[in-house]
Batch of 2 targets.
Target 1
Amino acid sequence: TQSTRPQRLLGAVQKNATRGDPRSVVQAIDQFCRQKEWAMNVGDEKGCILDSVVSEVNPATVLELGTYCGYSTVRIASLLPPHAKLITLEFNPDFAAIARQVIAWAGVEDKVHLVEGASGDWIPKMTEQFGVKTFDLVFLDHWKDRYLPDTMLMEECGLLRKGSILLADNVICPGTPDYLEYVRSSLRYESQYFKSHLEYTKVEDGLEKSVFLG
Ligand SMILES: CNc1ncnc2c1ncn2[C@@H]1O[C@H](/C=C/CNC(=O)c2cc(-c3ccc(F)cc3)cc(O)c2O)[C@@H](O)[C@H]1O
Ligand SMILES: [Mg+2]
């Protein structure tokens, strides 16, 4: 039977990356996506912006919406201080299964809790299930029309505190117009656009970093 692209991406990791070395996993995926098959990872260029925001925030609690194959999960986890927790939500069981193996190969499973389920169902359960009061950093990279409703849900559930950072991928391509309008016009956010390119291409894309003002 035919393999899927995530399965081939995992194969490239197991073939080319060193077990326990997150940076080699990131590099192996970027090489696979540049040389073999494009895949919707945040990628190396936007990934450097992600790295700089994670390092600056130095978060104790991180929420990622949309794990896919775990590329950004590994990128973020590799920069977290000891005892920090990254919760990542993925509702496609096939993608979740691949992501678990990518995360394990990188050796960052101790910092990552991959939850197989939908953001809309799990955001309201974060506190009771994981004892998380608020998130220091949220990385949004799931269905683009869900960025805004899930951000409002996080606000309603009290998961954002003064200074919480939202970092959103693809605000230009494919684009998240309603989310962008909201965080840029709301008095409760201070927003900043980091211009970049769509992963592995020359097409413009970027990340929007928004600080929740409480
Ligand atoms: C709605 N709640 C949800 N809860 C949990 N997981 C969810 C989810 N929505 C989606 N997901 C999962 O996130 C992932 C979805 C990501 C959607 N991303 C994109 O569509 C995307 C698409 C592009 C893209 C850009 C240009 C182009 F020509 C083609 C594609 C680039 C990106 O960087 C992207 O992130 C999947 O793994 C999906 O199963
Ligand atoms: Mg993306």
Target 2
Amino acid sequence: MTVTGTGDDGVILDDPMRTKGTAFTAEERAEHGLRGLLPYAVTTLEDQVRRCWGEVDRQATDLQRYVYLRSLQDRNEHLFYSVLAADVPTALPLVYTPTVAEGCKRFSELWRRPRGLYLAWPDRDALRDMLRNRPHDEVDVIVVTDGQRILGIGDQGVGGMGIPVGKLSLYTLIGGIDPARTLPILLDVGTDNPDLLDDPFYLGWRHRRIDDEDYFAFVEDFVAAVEAELPEVLLQWEDFATPHAAPILARYRDRLLTFNDDIQGTAAVALGALQGAAEVAGTRLADQQVVMLGAGSAGIGVMEMVRQEMVDQGRSPDEARSRCWVVDVRGLLTTDRDDLSGDQRAFAHDPADVADWDVEGLPGLADVVEHVTVGVLLGLSTAQGAFTEDIVRSMAAKVDRPVVFPLSNPTANAEARPAELDSWTDGRALIATGSPFPPLARADGPDVPVAQCNNVYIFPAVGLAVTAAKATRVTDAMMRAAARALGDASPALHDPHAPLLPAWADVRAVADGIALAVARQAVADGVAPEASDDELRDAIRATRWDPAY
Ligand SMILES: NC(=O)C1=CN([C@@H]2O[C@H](COP(=O)(O)OP(=O)(O)OC[C@H]3O[C@@H](n4cnc5c(N)ncnc54)[C@H](OP(=O)(O)O)[C@@H]3O)[C@@H](O)[C@H]2O)C=CC1
Ligand SMILES: CC(=O)C(=O)O
Ligand SMILES: [Mg+2]
């Protein structure tokens, strides 16, 4: 039933951006024709937040908590963000990884209300008309996915929409982007997930994914429609499969304000965490041998930024490359392989480098760790438990402070669990994970939180920066500036026992610092209008949306 009240503004109760629910004052109730439509008591936002957290706590499972919070978001956006802000560390795993993965898998079953835009291939002639149907005219940030590589759980088809919705809620919570100026988009080009194709409740276009020629033409039409309708918007590509992710980024990065979060955001957060780790380990990144398990777009994106950092620290490009080792499902990337993309080939080793290793076929991760003094081991492979006890002990036998980041999401896909890494290395490992894990227990002191090395430290701040600075492009230097600013905020720089990345409670202040660094770089790169630091700070402050009524 639609509540219409008697005043000219009576529908306000149903408008998630304007409603205050029971917090409407007596005067507001009279003004908006709401008298009698609400119970008599007038509550405060703080009362409502406490009541909602009570509801969250009473739910039996995290998936139910996710469903409750998503419903709250659709009902009252100010209250939703006030609830999240009241306890960011507890809220984050409920609206983001790992719970959002379950929300994506069960998207059709859990469907309640529409949010964002669903642009399906059969409607390809009407892309611009559909964009015009967006709920709010002005948009600062779009997050778009085609649902093909959702976290580490593969093709979720239309269910992938959970990710743009979740990411954009963090743009607001952390980056302060007005929720009415965000737009989640799902490009529905079919699904190759047989369970979804067989699911009678599946809400997407029930069809196999279209072929690449049609796919790239569809993406081009989508980008052209965005350019025509929203020429200044930030367009974030999220969770595209590796064969599409890098080509799309290459095609559009110099044409509009855009970036790929999995490639560039992940690289920036990893480099930021590595800055803290280098400080504690007392070694420069450029002096390390760095191994990446996983040669997808995320892994290669991280290694590209690692390589660039080594060059900035004084290594020649060839020296830097020789210190990077990338292993995929077949084994080490080597130049004699014929199954590598150009981006992967940039990290391939000459087979001569490993000729004396006495290994049958391609060396695997264990072989690399056995033959190389690995200082940094990173995982973006989706391979649960791939950092085995033997591998980690072998690495830790050769370095004082092994840096081990199992970064795959959600939790079940992590290459190792922090407690195991901690025990196998007698507490020497410097650890960061992609999804949240419990803190490490210490016999002689308080528990130590595990840093969550997730691109959520980066994308909201980048969105805040480009919106405030009116940037027209996202340059590599801007992403490097984000990484450095995050690294500079690492608690480990001041306390070797502290986590490598800032606490969630501080994440909004950290985002302001990252946003300033990124905005400054945008000005320096000539992709944003001239502005002083003070002007940029003012613009960042002015851009931040406040969830108070
Ligand atoms: N922490 C964070 O912020 C982020 C984490 N991620 C996570 O990174 C993971 C990967 O993402 P993405 O790069 O896009 O995905 P892809 O699926 O494209 O890449 C996975 C890579 O890992 C390789 N791989 C798979 N299984 C194994 C195995 N058993 N041993 C060795 N290598 C293996 C694959 O090889 P092959 O192609 O030959 O099968 C491929 O190179 C996901 O879990 C995602 O959630 C992503 C972005 C951000
Ligand atoms: C965090 C993220 O973007 C991913 O796992 O894909
Ligand atoms: Mg992602």
